[in-house]
Amino acid sequence: MQVPASFTYERAHSVEEAVALLERYGPDARLLAGGHSLLPMMKLRLARPETLIDINDLAELDSIRLVPGRGPDALGADGDELAIGAMTRHATVLDSALLAEHYRIFAEAERVIADPLVRNRGTVGGSLCQADPAEDLSGVFAALKGRAVIRSAGGTRTVPLREFHRGPYETVVGDAEILLEVRVPVRPGAGSAYEKVERRAGDWAVAAAGAFVQLRDGVVVDAGIGLSAVGAEHFTCPEAEDVLRGREPTAASIAEAAAICRDRCEPTADQRGPVDFKRHLTEVLVTRALTRSARRAEGGQA
Question: Coiled-coil ranges per the record (predicted)?
Fold first, then answer.
């Protein structure tokens, strides 16, 4: 029988209380949201927190909304941002009309995350903070160049999602901090897509790629690529994005970007396949995601 080690249980009723409990119990405390990653690790005793702080009552972190951002930028963003609360369930993201209006990548990624039971309980913040190298939403937010909003007793700070993960199962969120939400800029003229290969429905990815392409007069003014399960640093490949900007999204330019992703990723051989196979998949999936993103941008679709 798999039984976790003993622990103290606390339930927070506000963000402030959650932060105070984290400060009280120190680095051996863990936040409990959906629990689909933490609880199995506790049963196997791969994780042995001394205190669990349940944050399921924090309704203020369960929302998807359009908010004023940091102002218009040179790429034509209107300054608005999509704010997705850390306690938002995967199923809510999947069904959100607001997210679908701006980025279809969200629904396409959520549709292939685990199964309905997990999606109904698992949370956006839990997935990002677990920092699993094969996690889908980490690749999505890296592609979209989102930023994390983090709270501590000293105030609030923001961190680009491309700097959020320090490595496998490690993030920049401190011992007495909590992820509040993730923000993604609204980009007029952008299309997005997500591609994933898995051994069976609901499995971790063998390889996955997400992308957005923003066009102006048929030319790429901005692009983002997110990669999961293939050892890409910070879940992305900025060198590939650089070759797309200022060019039309032709088959040749997309193939060049996909080849760079293939060469820059660092997959490991495991039961899901050898390294060469995963590199090949990366190239194929990036090509598909960029191609579909460009077509959607050209057609005025998200």
Answer: none
